[in-house]
Amino acid sequence: MNLVAINQTIRAMCSEIGSLGCSKLDWRLLTEEELLYEATSCMFSSQMVFEVAVAAADRVRAAGLLSWREITTRQFPDYEARLLAMLDEPLSVEVNGRHRQMRPRFRNRLSSLLAKTIETIHKGGSSLGKILFSARSARHARKRLAEAVSGFGPKQASLFLRRVGFCSELAILDTHILDYLKIARGIDPKPSALSKLSSYEKIEIEFQRVATEFGYAIGCVDLAMWITMRIAKREGLL
Asked: What distances in angstroms separate CA 233 from CA 163, 175, 210, one per listed residue?
């Protein structure tokens, strides 16, 4: 599958997807538990396939471990242990059309990151909602989230902001988007570079140029590109 075919497929996908400016979620109406659930899904997705990350976050929420009332009265060492127990059991997940029993990867690390995040935010007298309401812009919100949420880099923070409907102009530079940029622009950053906000934003600017060339909103282009590149790789076309 050459670049011309890839671009044609992305354009076709964009015309079907349309603009993602109108999210199904409105962050201003979400409870703190709902915001924590979205943050947990994004945090977990940095270490595993997104479908598995969502299933793990679903289990943590179902156990009541994202309830803000419970969190504010719970001892954090016990909280982390309960998180780990929830993640230690296999999950039934549908990946690429097949149901599989899977255990989340890096369970100890993820339990620690989520517990640390909640402890940091709670002890600071803040919340994800307060962070969003106090943000001056999308980029400022991303910076604040990357500082407050353990395990959040620029990509995870951008994904969170997209999922809760805060904005759609920030790029989510995951591996599929980077694969495209390597083919189309010769951009091949080291993984460590993407953890730095300044480096991430330089690549994001190049992606914004690409989105402009396609003639669609950034959120629409990166979703269409993600779908196109993911399927192409899964089918052995790249």
From this structure: 25, 11, 21
Q: Residues 194, 200: contact at Cβ < 8 Å?
A: yes
Assess whether 110 and 182 both reside in one domain: no
Does some domain include residue 94? yes
pLDDT at 179: 93
**Rounded (10°) CA dihedral 191, 35, 121, 103:** -60
Same domain membership, residue 60 and residue 108: yes
Residues 154 and 147: their CA atoms lie apart, in Å, by: 10
State the Cα–Cα distance between residues 220 and 22, nearest whole angstrom.
Answer: 11
pLDDT, residue 213, reads 94
pLDDT at residue 37, as a whole number: 96
Residue 47 in domain:
yes
| β-sheet bridge partners, residue 126 | none
Question: Do 13 and 95 fall into the same domain?
Answer: no
For the chain, the domain total comes to 2
Q: How far is CA 47 from the centre of its chain?
A: 11
Walk along the chain (238 residues) in steps of 10 and give the mean pLDDT of each run: 93 79 78 95 87 91 88 75 90 79 87 91 88 96 94 93 92 92 90 87 93 91 92 87
| 14 and 65, same domain (yes or no) | no
- Domain span at 219: 3-21+170-234
Residues with Cβ within 8 Å of 105's Cβ and at least 6 positions away in sequence, in order, are 47, 48
User: Are 53 and 13 found together in one domain?
Assistant: no
Please tell me the predicted confidence (pLDDT) of residue 165: 92
Work out the number of other CB atoms within 10 angstroms of the CB of residue 216: 22
